[in-house]
Design brief:
Length: 195
């Protein structure tokens, strides 16, 4: 349709090089704008929480990433069934106050899809990934932000989509050694299963 409009606008009039460039750029802009309007909604929403309401300097604290996968989609296991499949992965950038000690992934669920002869290990629904964080000794009380991303490749029962990621941010509140810590999100951490 845009090509037809373009042809009607220029008609049979011979175009000089400047007009030809102008109309070519205009058509390209219309095409890019149209493509950008057809954007796929995100398949995964991710948030991160701590097991306690705060942490002490020099201590280890548990965190969890909660990834909600849209209905009708799945993402590959962290240890996918085939080498060519792209694993799901939580990547956290350490900072001087908060270091990432380990990240533990749950086992995927083996599911049979039409496009593969074997069952594939995937995640569906809600995925909980556990991470151990170390607060540096001598860290002063305050809020420290840990940033990163959750990378994944989403598929439905017919096709897989290009790999993508969602940003992850976790604020770790450090308090003085005499301040008691309170457990939060207990039900969530009880559901965590790791390989």
């Amino acid at each position: 349709m845009k090509t037809a409009i373009f042809n009607r606008m220029i008609g049979e009039v011979p175009l000089n090089p400047i007009r030809r460039i102008f109309w070519s750029c205009t058509l390209a802009c219309w095409t890019v704008t149209g493509m950008a309007a057809v954007k796929t909604p995100p398949v995964v929403e991710a948030s991160a929480v701590l097991e306690t309401d705060a942490a002490h300097s020099g201590s280890t604290v548990q965190a969890a990433l909660v990834a909600k996968i849209a209905s009708g989609y799945h993402i590959n296991d962290h240890k996918p069934s085939h080498d060519y499949l792209i694993p799901s992965e939580l990547k956290l950038d350490p900072n001087p106050q908060v270091a990432v000690q380990e990240i533990n992934y749950p086992p995927g669920t083996p599911i049979k899809f039409e496009f593969d002869d074997a069952k594939l290990s995937v995640y569906e629904g809600t995925l909980i990934i556990r991470a151990g964080l170390k607060i540096a000794a001598g860290t002063k009380p305050g809020d420290y932000t840990l940033k990163g991303k959750f990378a994944y490749q989403a598929c439905n029962d017919r096709a897989c989509f290009p790999p993508t990621s969602v940003p992850v941010q976790l604020v770790v509140k450090v308090v003085g050694a005499s301040v008691p810590l309170k457990r939060v999100h207990e039900d969530l951490f009880k559901r965590v299963k790791v390989e």
